[in-house]
Design goal:
Layout (H helix, E strand, L loop, with lengths): L4 E2 L20 H14 L4 E3 L9 E5 L11 H4 L6 E13 L3 E5 L9 E5 L2 E7 L5 E7 H14 L10 H15 L9 E2 L1 H4 L3
The protein binds zinc ion.
The site of zinc ion (ZN) has 5 residues, from helix 3.
Length: 196
């Protein structure tokens, strides 16, 4: 089932998400719905708060990068089977010199901006079977995980922009929260929700 994606301005996107237990009801179905929702919106990552659930769960499917012609076959390799569920994730370490990458977000359609982040992360998480893993990632995969991880901490990529950039996109963000935007996937807009 495709779920509506919450737009910028929804208070759920600002909550620090709560951990979940393996007894969380209908988790398999929820994960399946999240993948379906993400693919319908041509996304490569989706966090539970974006569909209105303030829980520590996000999904990543980086396989489209395996066909990215800007990358060499060697660079494409790590993306080939990178489809993963992250439950109760905690980033343990972030290292290296910050690098810039152009980010976008399904909750903030039509805005893409360069964001600085550290290149290497060490993360502890549980998979969909509640097996615990501690792994290190770098490059674009780390970047996608950092972006989704921010969602479960109530942070959006626009928070990381310069004061000037923030001022420049303020009007656009207000329009997004009011639903004044053309988007080809299902969304829910906070400003519209309050209306009778
Ligand atoms: Zn996002």
């Amino acid at each position: 089932m495709i779920l509506p994606i919450l737009a910028y301005g929804d208070p759920v996107l600002r909550k620090i998400a709560e951990p979940i237990a393996h007894t969380y009801s209908n988790l398999d179905q929820l994960i399946e719905n999240m993948f379906e929702t993400m693919y319908a919106a041509s996304g490569i990552g989706l966090a539970a708060p974006q569909i209105g659930l303030p829980i520590r769960l996000f999904i990543v499917d980086a396989t489209p990068f395996a066909e990215d012609e800007d990358l060499t076959p060697e660079e494409q390799e790590p993306f080939k089977d990178f489809k993963q569920v992250f439950i109760n994730a905690q980033i343990l370490e972030e290292e290296g010199d910050e690098w810039v990458f152009n980010e976008g977000c399904l909750s903030i359609p039509d805005i893409r901006e360069d964001v600085f982040r550290k290149p290497e992360i060490k993360i502890q998480y549980q998979d969909e079977n509640f097996q615990t893993h501690v792994k290190t990632y770098d490059g674009i995969i780390a970047r996608i995980i950092q972006h989704e991880y921010d969602h479960i901490e109530g942070i959006l990529f626009t928070d990381k922009l310069s004061a000037l950039k923030k001022r420049l996109i303020k009007g656009k963000l207000t329009n997004i929260s009011k639903g004044k935007i053309n988007v080809d996937y299902k969304m829910r807009f906070p400003a519209l929700k309050k209306k009778r």
